[in-house]
């Protein structure tokens, strides 16, 4: 636990399930006030709210598609209206589809980019604007993927969005470091989430994934949440512009373990 986190206000996009929910609950354990953003399932978002409250924090749910600029602006306004300030933004919302690159339509390209990269930019812009205006030395976390580093065939739009997220993070970190605003990236590997359920529930595909992970285990949302809590805390107060890979060693070229 981090003593400086209690009472701080965090917005987490895509927090109705998976990694977003895991981060929200961990922030609840830190006694934070959490805005749970969701796009489709209010029921699942309210479950996250209840889990945050049960963990010791405060929470509200706010609907919004981060791929739409106005929804992101409304999300930030709702946060200030509910809790009076903003200290931490976690850009977690993300989508992907599977398509051979030569068959990918521009519409499908834009759908992924709008949520994964443009939505994150708008969130960063609005959060930084507020933090500068109120002299808040805040923290922004962009949830990326190992595929900001590892190419992902059939997912060129997804991999491109995550690669862009890395440089978005580094550029903003450099630009706003003089103001005490820290911007970092967490890059998860294979995590037990709904997005990966179709792979992890199939024994053969599950084993294929495990073969890519030196630690020989699939990660859980709590692993990402622990990294997020540290990066958002003053324990990481001298850390900005980094990507923290939480991947069981997936980015360490596991093929070389075979000798």
From TrEMBL:
Residues that span the membrane, as ranges: none
One MF annotation (Gene Ontology) recorded for this entry: glucose 1-dehydrogenase [NAD(P)+] activity
EC number, as in UniProt: 1.1.1.47
UniProt cross-references to InterPro entries, sorted A to Z: NAD(P)-bd_dom_sf (IPR036291), Sc_DH/Rdtase_CS (IPR020904), SDR_fam (IPR002347)
Record-linked SUPFAM superfamilies: NAD(P)-binding Rossmann-fold domains (SSF51735)
Keywords associated with the record: Oxidoreductase
Family indicated by similarity: Belongs to the short-chain dehydrogenases/reductases (SDR) family.
Protein name per UniProt: Glucose 1-dehydrogenase
